[in-house]
Amino acid sequence: MVKPAPVKSLPIRISPMPIVQLGNPILWTVAKPVPKNADIDHLISRMSKTLTRAQGVGLAAPQVGQSVRMFLMDIHPTKTRSTLPQIGQIAVINPKVIDMSDEQVIDWEGCLSVTTPQGLVFGPVARPRSILVSFRNQNNKIVKMEMSDLIARIFLHEYDHLDGVLFLQRMTDLSKLVDERAYMNHLKSGTK
Fold first, then answer.
1. Distance between alpha carbon 14 and the CA centroid of its chain, in Å?
2. Where does residue 94 fall: left (phi above 0), alpha (psi -120 to 50 degrees), or beta otherwise?
3. pLDDT tens, position by position, 68-113
4. CA separation (Å) from 164 to 54, 76, 89, 112, 153?
5. In a domain, 11, yes or no
6. 149 in the Ramachandran plot: left (φ > 0), alpha (ψ -120 to 50) or beta?
7. For the chain, how many structural domains are there in total?
8. Within 10 A of 170 (CB to CB), how many other CB atoms are there?
9. Fewest C-beta in 10 Å: which of 25, 40, 108, 134?
10. Catalytic-role residue among 103, 109, 146, 158
C-alpha cells in the first residue's frame, strides 16, 4: 500500500490593512474593550504588517477600521525620531492610564490617519512628561509600566485613538500644522 504524501500546510499570507483617514467616523468613536477570551492574534499580525509598511511608531485598531481598545507601539529609531531606542513592537490591549506627571512637554506629533498626498501632517501637542500605565499584552498577561518622554507621548497618542480623539484636538493652535517636508526642514534647523 502506498502511503499518501503528507499535506503541506501553506503559510497564511498576512496582508496589511488600509489605514482609515481623517473624515471616517470610526476615528471619532470610543472603542469597545477587547473581551478577555477574544482571539486577536490575526488582527495583531495584520496591524503589525500595516504598521511596518507605514513605517510608523504606533497604530490603533480604530485606524484600521476595528473599534476595539487595542494598539501597537513599534519603538525604534526613525528618520524623524533618531533617538528612539530599539525596543520593537508591543501589543497594548485594554490599556489604562493610572497616573501622569503634572509636568507637560510640547513636542511634534504626526498621525498615519492624518495625511496629505505629500505625506503626514505634524503639529505641536502638550503631553505629560511621564505616565504610569497598565494593559494586557498579546500573551494575556497584565503589564504595568512607567513611560516617559517620547515613549509616553506615543502611548498617549495611540490611547487617544481609543477614545475617539485625534492629536489635532489636543493642539492649541491649528495654524502650526505643517506637512512632512516642512516638518523635516524644521527638524534639520533644530528650532522648536
1. 19
2. left
3. 999 999 988 777 777 778 888 999 999 999 999 999 999 999 999 9
4. 21, 26, 23, 15, 17
5. no
6. left
7. 1
8. 16
9. 25
10. 158
- Domain contains 90: yes
**Per-residue pLDDT tens digits for 152-188:** 999 999 999 999 999 999 999 999 999 988 888 887 8
Look up the CATH number of the domain holding residue 103. Answer: 3.90.45.10
Does residue 12 lie in a domain region? Answer: no
Residue 2 inside a domain? The answer is no
Sign of the Cα torsion 131, 91, 25, 30 reads negative
And the C-alpha cell for 156? 498617549
Residue 190, by phi and psi: left (phi above 0), alpha (psi -120 to 50) or beta?
A: left
**Residues counted in the chain:** 192
How far apart are the C-alpha atoms of 119 and 188, rounded to whole Å? 17
β-pair type (130-136, 58-60): unpaired
Residue 158 is a catalytic residue: yes
Cell matching residue 98: 493610572
